[in-house]
Amino acid sequence: MYLKRVEAIGFKSFAHKVNIGFTPGINGIVGPNGCGKSNITDAIKWVLGEQSTKNLRAQGMSDVIFAGSQDYKAQNMAQVSLVFDNSDKLLKLDYEEVEITRRLYRSGESEYSINKNSCRLKDIVDLLMDTGLGRDSLSMISQGAIANFAQAKPIERRGIFEEAAGVSKYKKRKIEALRKLEKTNENLLRISDIINELEDQIGPLKRQADNARKFLEKKERLDKIEVSVIVFDVANIERILIEAKENISTIKQELTINETKLLFDEGKLEQLKENIKTYDNEIAMLQAQLLSEVDKISSLEKQKSEEDSRDNENKSVEYIDGLKQKLNALAQELDGFNNNLKLMSVDLDELKISFEDKKSSYDDLKENIARKQNMLHNYQNKKGVLDNINDNKSNVYTGVKAIMEVKNSLSGIVGMVNDLFEVEEQFQDAISKSLAASLQNIVVESNNDAKRAVSFLKTNKAGRATFIPIDTIRARYINGDDIYVAQQSEGFIDVATNLIRFDEENRIVFEYLLNTTLVCDQIDNAVSLARALKNRYRVITLDGDIISVGGLVTGGKIKNDRGNILTIKKDLEKITEYISKITSEIQSDNEELYVQEQDLNNIRNKINQQNISIAKVEESISHRQHQFDDLKNEFESISNESYVQDFSQISSVVERLNSAKLNKERILSAIKSARETHSEINLDIENIETQLKSTRYFISDLEKKHSNINMEKATKEIELKNMLDRLANEYQLTIDGAKEQVVLELDMRLAKEEVVQLKREIKNLGMVNPLAIEEYERVSERFNFLSDQREDLETSKNDILDMINDTDKIMVEKFSKTIDDINKELPDTFSKLFGGGSVKLEYTDPSNLLETGIDIVAQPPGKSIKNLNLFSGGEKALIALSVLFAILKVRPIPLCILDEVEAALDQANVERFAKFLKEFSSETQFIVITHRPGTMEECDVLYGVTMQEKGVTKMISVHLEEAKDLASKE
Ligand code: ATP
């Protein structure tokens, strides 16, 4: 490597651009004083990174910019480029030529570049490091430096030897390491301070966090158990409520039965009491008749005995007559009885016919009731199914159901579309098909309400639902012309919105859903209407057939169309109506049946009575027939004539007496039977009264039970509502959501105890700061992070210390080796310059080779002084040069600039000096600024420096003689 060129402009006295080419070997620069020779070395130093203004012989850095002269004004920029031949690649760049440039503006802005690529000063320093070039190297030795070297303090000399030893790289590394070490120590201190502070915080925070964590654990457990307990209690209450409902319906049925019974028993009692009265009157009347009959008999008997005593003498004849009269009377009586019997049989037949009639109507009624009961049963079954569908809303999406259950705890829920309108039955199919799935959409007040409801469904995994936010939807309209077309079409009924009723505040919902749907009577008309409107609107028929926008036709009927909740609602209403109608019919039929049954019983009693009476009459007839037959035999044997009936012969007294006696008998038996019936009725009354008493008691008991159960039911319903509210408000859960969280293995009794226990424990925890957990985690994470960092810093501190140690070792080794090597060469260079004598480099502090100064112990021939200061200027220069050449022997460098270093030498020494230069010039390129012809003679090339224009340096190449001339011009 060698310096090929220096190009400068605006630097110090180089007002114009100069381009100085150098060659390998010795380049001499000559010229009178002050013409700018040293400015060349300054320029080279400046580019190589010199920062010291003193070393550049300036006050401030801007002093290096051309300051102006008599003829030229000052410049604003100084620029110098050094071009090195790098074919030996000593500079670690893959270029044959390396151009290093430095530029400075008066504004203070400065630039560096390598091969025209701008770079930093550091890049230049790094590039030159260990090449032997550089600020402190031997490559530039100025006029003063040679004298200073000898008389400098040992420690000041050290730099030269370090540079020669090539330790500057290590020194730099060490300095960097020390800087790093200092930074690391600072960081360590800072981190330790923070760690100490965190240690103070972490203890109390940990306690708080533990407390908060305990609280959260207990609270979570409490929530879980409490939710389970609530689910359990809800299930219990629901069971109780179902039982209560069942009990109430049974009690109601029993009440109806017993109240009906009571009513009829009371009616019956009244009837019986009426009957008693009738019998009382009859008995009284019969007794009056009996009395008059008894009177009649006694007067007739008296009359007869008078007649008997008068006719006693004609006894035998009369006896026969008497027999005949008796026979006649008996025959008459028998006749009477027989007539009676006939009449009674007719009555009996009539009773039987009437019984049969009534029985058949009774049977009809009974059959009718059975039929109705069957019907009722069917309806109830059907209602049960519909109720189930409606109640569980099994066809309603679970999400919709969940929202409707907790709608009071959510905000802005208006309701399910299905519940927000009414429609007449004739339009029901059309409207339900028009709305279809929208029936189960949920109308909400605003978009935010919808968002909240959706997030509720997500949290509870409660299903899905569609929401219609009133604040977001817009009404749709059919334009006026199209309406006109529709109105002219056959079968058009109306726009769907106009066929339903709803609250005005919900108008927009239905104008959004139905305002572009037209309703038509039947499919043919609907198709032509849709076509007339170019299939731009949906048309729907009363049957629910749909012509969609675009003209698609959908129709038909689904068996058991359960999906239609609108129909279910209507069906349910209808069936409930039927059930209540049939129930009341059955009730009144039952009442009628009861009356008929009573009637039938009465007739049956009467038939029995009649049968008994007939039997009695028949007995009387047979008794009298015997009497009659006996008397007839007696009469026929006495009178020897056969008996012929002759009622005219019966005397009127006997006749009347007999008839009176007969009457008396009849009345007596009537009284007896009336009395019997009377007492029977009385017995019935007693029975009914006891029955009434017990029925009334039973009814009041039932009523009491009913009211108790009702009360319990109401209480349980409130309890249930409270529990569901609690779930919704405290846990944001529906009962279904809650069921999913139930802890199955819980024993409810223990769970309830645990709830109490947990609540107590939570209370005992006192004030809890839930933020402490996060805070503790944050602080301890930071603590751990910083502790890790501290560890890392300590490791890297140790690494740095190790590295510094290693560097120190290397530096000591290289340094001491270099000093030893120089000491080997030094006596030779010294004695060649001095013609003998001895010299040696010595450490001022051998125990500390890293910092020791270097002493030069020199003894020129014949001299005994050792203090360098006492040597002459020339001697000092010779000593310094002998050291310089020794160093060059030990460590050759590519470039060495010597600025008038031989000025103080005598002619003979200049020649010796020049010989040395020649000797080293094969390895080192020399640029020598000199006034001495001896030196000039050894130069390979010579440059003259002049100031033809005042204050502006000019370079010219000169021959030896010209050079000598130039030098002597001073
Ligand atoms: P000597 O042989 O005495 O050592 P020299 O040839 O080495 O002299 P230099 O020291 O290189 O001379 O040059 C000094 C000259 O440069 C002076 O004339 C000085 O005025 C001029 N100079 C220094 N800085 C500037 C500047 N910024 N602008 C213009 N001229 C400058």
Outline of this structure?
By secondary structure, the chain is α/β, with parallel strands linked by helices.
Q: Would you spell out the secondary-structure blueprint of this structure?
A:
Elements (H helix, E strand, L loop, with lengths): L1 E8 L8 E4 L4 E5 L6 H11 L29 E9 L11 E9 L4 E5 L2 E3 L1 H8 L11 E2 L1 H9 L2 H12 L2 H143 L4 H78 L5 H8 L7 E4 L4 E3 L1 H11 L6 E3 L2 H14 L6 E3 L10 H9 L3 E4 L4 E3 L4 H8 L2 E4 L2 H10 L5 E4 L4 E2 L5 E2 L10 H75 L12 H80 L3 H6 L7 H17 L6 H64 L3 E6 L10 E6 L13 H18 L4 E5 L7 H14 L4 E5 L3 H6 L2 E9 L2 E6 L2 H9 L2
Parallel strand pairs: 3-22, 3-23, 8-21, 11-12, 15-16, 21-22
Antiparallel strand pairs: 1-2, 1-4, 4-5, 5-6, 6-7, 9-11, 10-14, 13-15, 16-17, 17-18, 19-20, 23-24
Helix pairs in contact: 3-18, 4-17, 5-14, 5-16, 5-17, 6-13, 8-13, 17-18, 18-19
Bound molecules: adenosine-5'-triphosphate.
Keywords:
six-stranded mixed sheet; 21 helices; rod-shaped; six-stranded antiparallel sheet; 24 strands; 63% helix; 970 residues; alpha/beta; single chain; binds adenosine-5'-triphosphate
